[in-house]
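Notes to self after the Tuesday call (sharing in case useful).
The group wants a holo model before anyone commits to mutagenesis around the pocket. I volunteered. Ligand is zinc ion. Logging inputs and output together so the record is complete.
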Amino acid sequence: MKIFKLLVGLSAFSILLCGYTTNINKNINIEILPSLEVNQGETLVINIKSDTPLTNPIYFFKGKKYKIYKKGKNSYKALLGISAIEKTGVHYLLIRDKDSKLEKQFNLTVAKSNFPIQNIRISGKKSSLSADNKELKLIANAKKVISNIAYWNDIPFNSPTKGCLASKYGLLRYHNGKPTGNYHKGIDIKAPSGQIINTITKGQVILAQRFRLHGNTVVIDHGQGLVSLYIHMKKIYVKQGDIVTADQEIGEVGTTGFSTGPHLHFGLYINGTPINPVKYWLKYIPKCK
Ligand SMILES: [Zn+2]
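Result:
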């Protein structure tokens, strides 16, 4: 049975959104937020409520399986991130548990977000800046970290620094008029050099290091597949392994690495997929004038 209902007040995800809910049988209910139709770059939340405990519930998406985490007595939750360049059309989302009490396939429709092209003019020395393999590997691995502890809870989070939105998530990147095949995997918040950067929510620092391309970089694991990234920092106040609290000062805005002026590049990842941080996750950030 398919029921569309207005969900109010359960979480920021559900406020004024029509979620999709279905009863698998009389014992199990699955809720998918915001719906089974999403745009590129969006986040989906899967909530399961059951009368009896489920054994290791998981979901499959694009050939990979992901854990659905226990949230309370017989309730489970998982996030699913849709990338900015995810193929549009219907994708299969399979949810099941080990004992086959639960097995249900959903048709998830991904719609185009029409992200604009962003051309960046780079002159002189900085255009030749490149990352070495070690840098790329360390950062790529940090973004993919999935740990079992959920450090975070309430959304939306505070913006990681005060400033205005200079560059949106999802912009297709061109350098000097040429496509790079890449897209903007986070947001750029323009702010003065030296301004404090705070972590968005509780977590553990998994990377705190200076790199050639990314500059001073901090990556924080918030648990259960949610990871945040802060780059081009002037100073880093934390070290790898530190447990940080929500809004803790972790460094300063800068322009280190491949950067054209002081700003914070902030990225949010779900199970390694970069998603749009300003949709649901962060409190309002004004656009730069
Ligand atoms: Zn950026």
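Two things stood out.
Residues 217 and 231 are 4 Å apart (CA to CA).
The chain has two domains: 2-111, 117-275.
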